[in-house]
Design brief:
The protein has 408 residues and is α/β, with parallel strands linked by helices. It is built from 14 helices and 14 strands. Bound molecules: zinc ion.
């Protein structure tokens, strides 16, 4: 039996970019190492969820892990909370939050509070953590950068509430119930907003920030309420041990929720643009010594896509190609290796799109097809054809000789 390394290059797929003579970053940059895996393996294109569906990174990862997304997904909050290593219980409601800077009349002056991060966010969170409103416990934990997760624990809660986060608008919204059962939840969230502002506005950390000319983080702005879903553990479904190599809280959270262990990465392998891909690859290869299945997420291309910076994304592609060269040199013989993306993040959109993504699967002795290039168009020539995210794990399990015959 072989082991499986599933590499998800987050948001790597693109559309034609004006800055790249109408090509995508993958088409524009020569990627000899990525191409090697395509040339020696099987390629295709993949709709992470279904054609035309614009996935989030969370729903796309769940789909790629083989789950029926619609039946388990109830909002991003629970995954942010698990990613922040919060201990969630069934019945809890979780929301994602931004630390933000607002005026007294709740006008948003900076929706990321100058991209505040730990340890300052940790100090602010400490000021909020003994909060109970109408019998509901409010538990806050800082997450990546200016983000945090908020968990509500108590009786009579319901996740069907609107966001406080105004997104494009500039005044915070009142939390509204979407049904009668959620009236109480919306009410306590609104009370929390008042209490949160009162506790943070004159917090010593914020006073220090203002003295230094930085925007204070005087409120938490919640969105994406969801109740914690029950997810059948991935290792149990497939009968394999599994580990995740990612620096992104959200991805770690999803994996944990699926019963997948999280590899402790060094600081240099964070989920940022400057992450050390070579070191991360070494961590993934090391994880493969102990686990049958490793999911590795590389977030940088998504960040460049959201910035709308095609040149920057091309630079990220070059570094990813060097990573694939490193993996090629150091990978064990008995490995099934998959290169794909969780979704496209076209630079022209600065957001995710519903386009299919390229996929290549290589293992020693697999079928070689006509595809030669790891790109959105190059992988179209492959024998995998057009598959869906949920097909990936079964295909890998079969190539790893881990499936049982269906029938006699
Ligand atoms: Zn994204």
């Amino acid at each position: 039996m072989k082991k499986i390394l599933l590499i998800v290059m987050d948001g790597l797929g693109d559309r034609g970019c004006d800055d790249l003579r109408g090509l995508t970053p993958l088409q524009f940059i020569r990627n000899p190492n990525m191409d090697w895996f395509v040339e020696h393996g099987s390629a295709g294109i993949c709709d992470p969820i279904a054609p035309g569906i614009r996935p989030g990174s969370d729903t796309a990862h769940l789909a790629i892990l083989g789950y029926d997304v619609q039946s388990i997904y109830s909002g991003r909050g629970p995954f942010e909370a698990i990613g922040a290593e919060m201990d969630i219980q069934p019945g809890d409601i979780a929301l994602r939050c931004n630390f933000a800077y607002v005026s007294d009349d709740m006008e948003v002056l900076d929706r990321r509070a100058g991209r505040i991060k730990a340890p300052e966010t940790t100090e602010l969170v400490d000021a909020l953590n003994d909060l109970e409103i109408d019998g509901v416990e409010f538990i806050v934990k800082e997450s990546t950068d200016h983000r945090a997760a908020l968990v509500l624990r108590g009786y009579g809660l319901d996740e069907r509430i609107t966001d406080v986060d105004p997104q494009g608008d500039n005044v915070l919204k009142t939390c509204e119930p979407l049904c009668e059962e959620a009236e109480f939840t919306a009410e306590v969230v609104n009370k929390f907003m008042v209490e949160c502002y009162n506790r943070l506005k004159n917090h010593p950390t914020n006073r220090k920030r203002m003295a230094a000319g930085l925007p204070p983080a005087n409120i938490l702005v919640p969105r994406g309420a969801g109740s914690f879903p029950y997810i059948e553990p991935f290792p149990y479904i497939h009968g394999i041990s599994a580990c995740c190599v990612s620096g992104v809280g959200m991805i770690k959270g999803i994996c944990k929720a699926c019963g997948i262990d999280v590899y402790p990465l060094p600081e240099s392998c964070n989920g940022g643009l400057d992450t050390d891909f070579i070191m991360k690859a070494d961590c993934a290869l090391e994880a493969l010594e102990d686990y049958d299945f490793v999911l590795m997420n590389c977030k940088a291309p998504d960040i460049a896509g959201h910035d709308g910076d095609a040149k920057l994304k091309s630079e990220v592609v070059k570094r990813l190609d060097a990573m694939m060269g490193h993996i090629r040199k150091n990978m064990p013989d008995d490995l099934v290796i998959v290169m794909t993306c969780d979704h496209c993040t076209p630079c022209s959109l600065k957001d995710h799109s519903g386009d299919p993504v390229p996929i290549a699967i290589y293992t020693k002795g697999c079928l070689r097809d006509e595809a030669k290039e790891f790109s959105e168009s190059g992988c179209c020539h492959g024998f995998l054809g057009r598959i869906r995210g949920r097909d990936i794990v079964p295909i890998c399990m079969d190539l790893a000789n881990r499936t049982e015959k269906y029938g006699s």
